[in-house]
Amino acid sequence: MLLPGGGHHIRRGGIDVTLKVAGGENALTSTFDIRIPPGYDVGAHVHSHGEELFYVLEGTVDLLAFEPVDRGLDDWHDWVSPQGQRYMRGDPGALMFVPAGVPHAFSNLSDKPAKMFFQAAPSGHEGYFEELADLLESSEGRPDIALVAELRRRYDITQLTGLRAG
Predict the structure, then answer these.
(1) pLDDT, tens digit, for every residue of 69-85?
(2) CA 166 to CA 163: how far, in whole Å?
(3) CA of 140: how far to CAs of 108, 114, 132, 133, 136, in Å?
């Protein structure tokens, strides 16, 4: 049980995540509150094994979870599914479930911060956030691309479009 604001805070290098439930022998998922700064775009990516769930708590977040007709487009906001689906603009209460193998992305293109509830399965995604925060902090926000790619590889993340920090 956690009181509001409780959990393990990962707040450095531009990352602002609160781990609510850690992975381990008692949890199949890792659960977080994530603050998304204005202008941030995680970039489209895919996990071959992991599933994720996103629920918008505050602000407006663009959400995408489908296989596009053309993965080669640089901006996932331009992606279209074979059925004609495009990204969704999600206000509080919007939910996105991402099965393994499905490209997905989120961004906050507004001028105000947004906040999401986030679950990742299998558990362990907190390690990714910790390592990414360390990498961003030590490089003053300009990490070596090869180091970021290696980090993502170890956490089952294949990046499809670029990340924008806002």
Answers:
(1) 999 999 999 999 999 99
(2) 9
(3) 22, 23, 12, 10, 6
